[in-house]
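Researcher: Sequence recovery benchmark, item below. Answer with residues only.
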């Protein structure tokens, strides 16, 4: 007896297909993260080469941030094509077009501004700030260039890490596990970065962890980058440009206002800036419930699955006796009907008595 063979492989099981999909999502997250780290150095080298060629001057940081944004979008577009996604690019990158986009960005900017102001206010009350003003026209030019640079750089960071990478990490694991993984990577990256002498490294790592949790909450509560981008930009721009304090040890963004904080490191953060001050830890803890409270409507509209009515069609048949009673009251179509049915009898009203009729 001959055995029949077939050249068609059996279809994969749903569990195996799900495992491959999760593995692909995790791989794309790692590639997106490594791509962002790589293009940061590539954009710096390219901007330096352009500066040597065209003498960019004060526009060099903006050109570098713009190149970073372009390279990030190009790389994420390639990763999107690997997944064969058909939705619009802005939706794949976490920037959905909706009616509340501006309100979400403004809400995030308000929270970021509030964190920065709450960081500066105790220093101002303690008279621990040494302010220097520079009001020349060039200072205001640098002021607006710094704002544009931080806006573009924060957008590139949001697109690569949270807009695309965080989505793929959630697909591979779960929202809670993805948050823990991203927070851990943020702590490792912050610990790897160099800091000025005297900086409280433990404090700045904890601040990086809380900031990463806050940004993850922005995404999970809105499923978009508008609020996250607004919060990140407003926090960094207010700290570095408006108040002139160091931004993670970087003083290049201060233009109109140059500030030096004098006081204990737990209050000022030292040369590293407020991102290493213990006061910022308390403010970030307080910002988490505020963020959850102000995003209730967005979480209801954009993150919860739609309510689908369910149930079964239940039709109860009437009792047999009741059906027989109803049928007995109807005329039987098999019996002959009268040719001339009886006419209705109309009862007229009685005639009124005349006035000359004598009473009985």
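Model:
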């Amino acid at each position: 007896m001959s055995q029949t063979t077939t050249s068609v492989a059996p279809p994969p099981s749903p569990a195996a297909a799900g495992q491959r999909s999760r593995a692909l999502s995790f791989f794309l997250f790692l590639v997106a993260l490594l791509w962002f780290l790589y293009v940061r150095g590539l954009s710096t080298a390219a901007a330096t080469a352009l500066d040597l060629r065209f003498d960019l001057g004060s526009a060099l940081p903006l050109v570098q941030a713009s190149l970073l944004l372009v390279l990030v979008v190009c790389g994420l577009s390639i990763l999107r094509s690997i997944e064969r996604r058909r939705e619009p690019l802005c939706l794949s990158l976490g920037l959905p077009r909706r009616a509340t986009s501006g309100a979400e960005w403004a809400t995030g900017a308000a929270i970021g501004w509030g964190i920065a102001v709450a960081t500066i206010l105790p220093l101002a009350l303690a008279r621990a700030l040494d302010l220097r003003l520079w009001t020349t026209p060039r200072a205001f030019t640098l002021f607006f260039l710094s704002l544009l640079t931080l806006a573009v750089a924060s957008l590139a960071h949001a697109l690569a890490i949270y807009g695309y990478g965080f989505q793929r990490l959630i697909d591979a694991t779960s929202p809670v596990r993805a948050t823990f993984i991203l927070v851990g990577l943020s702590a490792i990256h912050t610990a790897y970065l160099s800091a000025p002498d005297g900086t409280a490294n433990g404090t700045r790592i904890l601040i990086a962890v809380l900031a990463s949790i806050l940004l993850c909450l922005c995404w999970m509560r809105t499923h978009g980058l508008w609020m996250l981008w607004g919060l990140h930009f407003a926090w960094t721009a207010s700290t570095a440009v408006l108040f002139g304090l160091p931004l993670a040890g970087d003083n290049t963004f201060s233009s109109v206002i140059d500030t030096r904080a004098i006081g204990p490191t737990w209050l000022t953060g030292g040369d590293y800036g407020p991102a290493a001050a213990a006061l910022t830890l308390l403010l970030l803890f307080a910002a988490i419930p505020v963020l959850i409270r102000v995003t209730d409507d967005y979480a209801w509209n954009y993150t919860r699955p739609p309510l689908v009515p369910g149930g079964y069609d239940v039709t109860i048949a009437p009792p047999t006796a009741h059906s027989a009673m109803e049928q007995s009251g109807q005329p039987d179509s098999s019996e002959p009907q009268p040719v001339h049915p009886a006419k209705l009898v109309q009862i007229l009203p009685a005639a009124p008595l005349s006035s000359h009729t004598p009473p009985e």
